[in-house]
Amino acid sequence: MKKKVFTVVSTLALCTSLAMPTYAAGNHPGTPEQQNYNSSGFTDYEQLGKKLEKIEQSSQGRVEVEVVGQSNNGRDIHQARVGNGDRVILIESEIHGNEKTGTEAILNLLQHLGSSNSPDVKALLEEVTLVTLPKMNPDASELDRRGNAMSWEEVLQDFPQLEGADGPTWNHYYSENGATLQGDDYSSQPGFDVNRDFNPDLDYTPEPEDVPGSSSEPGWYITPEAQTVRDVYKGLEDEFGKVDVFVDLHHQGLYYVEGTSDPVTLSLSGQFVPDPSSEAGAKYAEYEDNYDYDFSRQLNLAAYDALQSMGSSPFDNITLYSQGLDLPGTALGSFALNGSGTVLFEVTGQTQSMGQKKKGMLVNAVETGLQAIIEGVADGSVNELDPERYEDIPETSYRPGI
């Protein structure tokens, strides 16, 4: 039988300038540094609700929008869903509130998938169910920073069993002895890196012996934002049996293609914990039957091949994010162990001198990669990619020529 081929036409999103991220010495992938951006021109919290409402209305019910949770400060966390297929793709953006290009890419895709009457789009939506969380950390987004807005005292109110634990947890940002942590003002509004608050045990409840933890240990689901994503994931598991694909959209700093002085446009990755069948991953042995690294590599290849085929900046200089990570406290690590194919997008930090056109092209780069994944899952072509080709993608370097 002839394979279906789907083509989704992307919309070029035009956005205003961002400031170059600043990096502190000694940090490494998996514990990224604070990134300082000027977020003007990107969709803020109030605008997001209005845009999603408009997309839902114009789609005549094809796109379904609902509130699936609240942030710690009571802001709604929106979910937008389109499609009726058995293969589930979950995409989230702005788990770090100053990493915003993914939100624009998601809105573009929702607008197109919700309004297009092309046979290709209709056929695609019969094969996949696309679930998106366009701004899953709205407090951080409004503060234009990485961490959410939540104190350790608020955690203790929610989880009194942690009283007396060696807290706060390692991913808590606050001002200590007059020093500002993470390069931002957390003195009046401390917060957590929500993307270190996940746990592969989706039913885990915080225990004092697990605090403060570390980057190579699971998180706790102490933030309402991480709890919301976990609950969405579990709900999809109950409905469909599994979440086939999980994609997390981020920004990174100025990195280079390994061995060159070429700045990276976008990094991809499908590896966030060691293979549970390996010696290094033996502590995750209970998840061995779920873990599918080959599928994650195929998904990343689908995005990489699509970006490479575009042929010119910003679609060149696509690299692999640092490999060999052990980050079970990230959403990507936790959901990979639960059987989802995983993809990380890390868009380069943009400078104010890049201008509106450049930033719009970078949003389009994310959109291009996402639509390639969606199409590849819908028509099954992603399963035909040789996962070993993933290892041939150039890696990222911190300094030119290294």
UniProtKB/TrEMBL annotation:
Key words of the record: Hydrolase, Metalloprotease, Protease, Signal, Zinc
Gene Ontology MF annotations: metallocarboxypeptidase activity; zinc ion binding
One Pfam family, short name: Peptidase_M14
Every Peptidase M14 domain range: 41-402
Stored InterPro entries: Peptidase_M14 (IPR000834)
GO cellular component: extracellular space
Signal peptide: 1-24
Superkingdom of origin: Bacteria
Needed co-factor(s): Zn(2+)
Annotated spans, Disordered: 199-220
Any single GO BP term: proteolysis
Gene3D superfamilies named in the record: Zn peptidases
Cross-referenced SUPFAM superfamilies: Zn-dependent exopeptidases (SSF53187)
Family: Belongs to the peptidase M14 family.
Stated name of the protein: Peptidase M14 domain-containing protein
Species whose genome carries this gene: Halobacillus andaensis
